[in-house]
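Is this the right way to post C-alpha cells for a design question? Let me know if I should format differently. Anyway, here goes:
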C-alpha cells in the first residue's frame, strides 16, 4: 500500500491501519512534499520512505491519494504514465470526483473515499464510491483498508460532497462543541481538568447511548427534557437563538466548499 500525502488525514489512515494490525508496516510506503512528516512516521511506525509519488505508483497495488485537493492536478500529471489497470487508486481528496481523476488516469480503477479522523483509533466512518473502471478486486482492496480503521459504506458519488460535510468534517463540529462546553464549565468555577472530565464522559456516554438505544436521538433528548426544568431552559435558549439553523447552515457551507474544491482543482 502506498500513501501519497501524510498530512492530518493521510497520517491518521497510516496510523489506524498499523494500529489495527491488518497490513504489516513493511508493506506500507509513504511520501509527502514535507520530508519531515515522512521521517517522523517512518521512525515512529517503521513504514518505508517511498521517496516520491512516481516511485510509490510503481511499487503499490493500492495507491492512496491523500494530497490536498488544491494539489491534486499537479500530482495526477506526475502519475499519468505510472499506473496500470491492475492497480487500484483510492482518493481521499475532498471534492475531487472520480471522473476528474480519470481524465488523467484513463481506464484506471478509481475509488473515491471520505474517511474521518476517528480512523486514528479504529473508529472511523468512511464512505466510498466507485469510478467507471472498478471491479470487485479494487473494492476488496479498499474495504480491507477501511474496515481496519472503522466502518465503511458505499454511496453514490452525487452524495459525496454532502458526506464530506456531515461525516468527514463532522468530528470538528463535535470537538468544537466539546471546547465550548469545557469553557462554560470553567466560567462556572470548575477547574479545566474537572470540566474536561465531565464533558468528555458526557459526550462519550451520550454517543454510546444513541447508538445502542432503540430510541431515536430526538426521543432520547425528550427523555431528559422535563417541562420547566434545567434541560428545557437550555434547549429553549438554543431554539430561540436559531441553533438548528446555525448548525445546518454550517454543514451546508462545508458541502458547498467541497463542491468548490472539485470545481477549482
Amino acid at each position: 500500500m502506498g500513501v501519497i500525502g501524510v498530512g492530518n488525514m493521510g497520517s491518521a489512515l497510516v496510523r489506524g491501519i498499523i494500529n489495527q494490525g491488518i497490513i504489516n508496516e513493511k508493506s506500507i510506503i509513504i511520501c509527502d512534499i514535507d520530508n519531515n512528516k515522512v521521517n517522523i512516521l517512518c521512525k515512529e511506525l517503521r513504514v518505508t520512505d517511498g521517496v516520491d509519488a512516481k516511485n510509490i505508483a510503481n511499487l503499490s497495488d493500492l495507491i492512496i491519494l491523500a494530497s490536498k485537493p488544491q494539489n491534486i492536478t499537479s500530482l495526477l500529471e506526475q502519475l499519468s504514465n505510472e499506473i496500470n489497470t491492475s492497480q487500484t487508486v483510492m482518493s481521499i481528496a475532498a471534492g475531487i470526483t472520480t471522473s476528474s481523476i480519470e481524465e488523467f488516469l484513463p481506464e484506471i480503477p478509481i475509488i473515491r473515499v471520505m474517511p474521518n479522523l476517528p480512523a486514528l483509533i479504529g473508529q472511523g466512518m468512511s464512505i466510498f464510491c466507485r469510478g467507471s473502471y472498478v471491479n470487485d478486486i479494487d473494492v476488496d482492496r479498499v474495504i480491507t483498508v477501511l474496515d481496519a480503521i472503522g466502518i465503511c459504506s458505499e454511496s453514490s458519488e452525487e452524495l459525496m460532497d454532502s458526506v464530506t460535510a456531515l461525516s468527514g468534517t463532522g468530528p470538528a463540529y463535535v470537538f468544537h462543541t466539546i471546547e465550548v462546553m469545557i469553557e462554560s464549565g470553567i466560567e462556572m468555577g470548575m477547574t479545566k481538568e474537572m470540566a474536561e472530565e465531565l464533558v468528555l464522559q458526557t459526550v462519550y456516554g451520550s454517543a454510546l447511548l444513541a447508538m445502542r438505544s432503540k430510541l431515536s436521538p430526538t426521543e432520547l433528548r425528550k427523555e431528559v427534557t422535563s417541562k420547566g426544568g434545567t434541560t428545557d431552559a437550555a434547549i429553549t435558549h438554543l431554539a430561540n437563538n436559531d441553533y438548528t439553523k446555525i448548525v445546518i447552515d454550517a454543514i451546508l457551507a462545508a458541502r458547498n466548499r467541497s463542491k468548490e474544491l472539485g470545481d477549482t482543482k
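Format looks fine. Someone answered above. Worth noting: The chain has twelve helices and eight strands. The longest strand covers residues 124-130.
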